[in-house]
Write a structure and sequence with these properties.
It contains four helices and eleven strands; from the N terminus they run H-H-E-E-H-E-E-E-E-H-E-E-E-E-E. The strands form two sheets. It has a nine-stranded antiparallel β-sheet with strand order 3-4-5-6-11-10-9-7-8, covered by helices on one side.
């Protein structure tokens, strides 16, 4: 009789554990891996406009056009650059599509911010993702990126909040980005190179 009671208790624990693993905790993990549009100081990426940026941040110190883009292209990007406008000492850049005026992205380049300080500021609910460049689609500066466990780029990601923090090898923060979509592809779009077979030596 005692063994039956113990067996029933173990079965009940297993059922509860299974229910928990497929319940709120699993949903939270899945949610943390799904990208959502970021909102920074009331500016929502992919939704807010140039007028909203001017209302919240005022006129920028300068307006830049990315190198290589045609200044006559109506779909080009325009970068509104602000000095000292972010929470951290450094530069804040709002990337806007010229034709629609919609905010595409916001980047903060802090002058001196460590990985530990960034995590303390933004919280522990992040995931670490490494990326590499898809070399067949451009050079290292212009090539798109994809998720790779051995990639050279490391990002601290708060995907459910649309925040990505790029950290260098010295654990200093290069860029804090507020985005509305994934940073890169899940896998490389370049075909793997086939290894050449050596001819046998007679």
């Amino acid at each position: 009789m005692k063994s039956v009671v113990v067996l029933s208790a173990l079965l009940m624990q297993s059922m509860l554990a299974l229910q928990w693993s497929s319940g709120p905790l699993q949903k939270q993990v899945q949610s943390n891996r799904t990208w959502q549009a970021a909102t920074y100081r009331g500016l929502t990426i992919g939704k807010s406009t140039r007028a909203d940026v001017l209302r919240v941040l005022g006129e920028p110190q300068r307006k830049d056009i990315p190198e290589g883009e045609n200044p006559n292209d109506p779909d080009r990007e325009v970068w509104y650059v602000y000095n000292g406008a972010a929470e951290f000492l450094g530069t804040l850049t709002v990337i806007i599509q010229n034709r629609t005026g919609v905010v595409l992205r916001i980047d903060i380049a802090p002058e001196a911010l460590s990985k530990a300080e960034a995590i303390k500021h933004f919280g522990p609910d992040y995931i670490l993702t490494r990326y590499d460049f898809d070399q067949c689609l451009g050079d290292e500066e212009s090539a798109p990126i994809y998720e790779s466990p051995t990639g050279s780029l490391m990002e601290i990601e708060y995907r459910h909040r649309g925040i990505a923090i790029q950290v260098n090898d010295t654990e200093k923060v290069n860029t804090i980005s507020f985005v509305s979509k994934p940073l890169g592809a899940v896998e490389s779009k370049c075909k793997p190179q086939k290894k050449r077979e050596r001819n046998p030596i007679n």
